[in-house]
């Protein structure tokens, strides 16, 4: 083997390792497509790279990512069979190479761009399922057989990454569905609380983003929001649905729902330690007079302090067996009056902004 050939093979291997390393950090379909597009542009020295993803019914290719000098509108749709990308996808060579002087009439031209050398690499799984087509173009020099082989390797790596991301998406959705079902199971026992789970999850996420929480903390908060009342599944109806005040013995039973919820949630696959903190501690108070552990101030986990605001606000503004729904500003006035006793003052300021508190109203 000539030294020049060895250098080319070494460079190709490095390029493939570079792409593979980049793909390892991509976890969603969108991230994989973006990495595949931008990294291929750099490593293949192309003028542009497009990723065309297949629609669920496989009746069209959609332009979902583009990198380089040419930026056509994302969402561009190629019906099945139209253009060279479909020709590559429907039984052509593993990588379709087209010289700029031999572009056929069936090619789809995007604007007045000059003729370019083209490469098309379909991403096809071992089950012969089309995931998309990677498209490259450059003015000169022409793409070589080595370029073809390298793009084929890129397409294989992209296919594996997309399949992995798709499986991760399915697992995440299954977990989300499980959490929602568990939250709704609690609501099914009490018609008055229906919608509480979805509302508190949404508002807690809104507040978490306003506070600048990262992805991990937001995931903890979302899971904890779904499952915060899970322990009430073990609370007797005579206590849970009692229309009047609870006596001391009944309160003692009711307060066990945070510990029971933590115990039950530990048996749910994938529930994070941060979510367990929300379930256990969302009835703690800033002044230390809450339950189950009597934690005070910043000893209460942040997500639990945050969620307690959301939980109380939703409970006040929706009808329950023991009270009618309050107008939002009246509920916020009551919450504000508990600043520094029940609620964290710093979090309360942000919460009031998020829910649209108007100073003076409701007082």
From TrEMBL:
Broad class of enzyme this protein falls into: hydrolase
Keywords: Hydrolase
InterPro entries: Cyclic_di-GMP/3'3'-cGAMP_PDE, GAF, GAF-like_dom_sf, HD/PDEase_dom, HD_GYP_dom
Residue intervals passing through the bilayer: none
Pfam families: GAF_2, HD_5
Domain HD-GYP: 171-363
Known EC number: 3.1.4.-
Molecular functions (GO terms): hydrolase activity
Keyword Lipoprotein: no
This protein's record includes keyword Lyase: no
Gene3D superfamilies, A to Z: 3.30.450.40, Hypothetical protein af1432 (1.10.3210.10)
Protein name: HD-GYP domain-containing protein
Record organism: Deinococcus navajonensis
Lineage, broadest ranks: Bacteria, Thermotogati, Deinococcota, Deinococci, Deinococcales
């Amino acid at each position: 083997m000539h030294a020049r050939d060895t250098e080319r093979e070494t460079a190709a291997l490095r390029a493939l390792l570079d792409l593979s390393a980049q793909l390892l950090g991509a976890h969603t379909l969108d991230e994989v497509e973006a990495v595949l597009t931008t990294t291929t542009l750099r490593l293949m020295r192309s003028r542009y790279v497009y990723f065309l993803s297949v629609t669920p019914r496989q009746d069209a290719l959609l332009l979902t990512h583009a990198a380089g000098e040419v930026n056509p509108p994302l969402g561009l749709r190629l019906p099945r069979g139209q253009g060279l990308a479909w020709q590559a996808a429907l039984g052509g060579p593993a990588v379709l190479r087209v010289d700029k002087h031999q572009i056929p009439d069936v090619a789809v031209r995007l604007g007045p761009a000059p003729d370019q050398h083209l490469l098309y690499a379909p991403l096809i799984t071992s089950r012969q399922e089309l995931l998309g087509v990677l498209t490259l173009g450059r003015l000169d020099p022409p793409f070589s057989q080595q370029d073809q082989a390298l793009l084929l390797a890129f397409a294989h790596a992209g296919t594996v990454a997309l399949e992995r991301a798709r499986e991760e998406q399915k697992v995440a959705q299954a977990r989300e569905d499980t959490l929602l079902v568990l939250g709704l199971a609690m609501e099914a026992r009490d018609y008055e609380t229906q919608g509480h789970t979805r509302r508190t999850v949404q508002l807690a996420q809104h507040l978490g983003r306003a506070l600048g929480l990262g992805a991990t903390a937001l995931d903890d908060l979302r899971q904890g929001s779904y499952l915060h009342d899970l322990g009430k599944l073990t609370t007797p109806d005579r206590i849970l649905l009692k229309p009047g005040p609870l006596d001391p013995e009944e309160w003692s039973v009711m307060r066990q729902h945070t510990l029971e919820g933590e115990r039950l949630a530990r048996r749910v696959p994938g529930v994070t330690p941060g979510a367990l903190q929300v379930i256990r501690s969302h009835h703690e108070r800033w002044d230390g007079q809450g339950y189950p552990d009597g934690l005070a101030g910043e000893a209460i986990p942040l997500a639990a302090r945050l969620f307690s605001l959301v939980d109380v606000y939703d409970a006040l503004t929706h009808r329950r067996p023991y009270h009618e729904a309050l107008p939002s500003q009246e509920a916020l006035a009551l919450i504000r009056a508990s600043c520094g006793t029940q609620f964290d003052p710093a979090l309360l300021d942000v919460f009031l902004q998020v829910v649209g508190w108007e100073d003076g109203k409701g007082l």
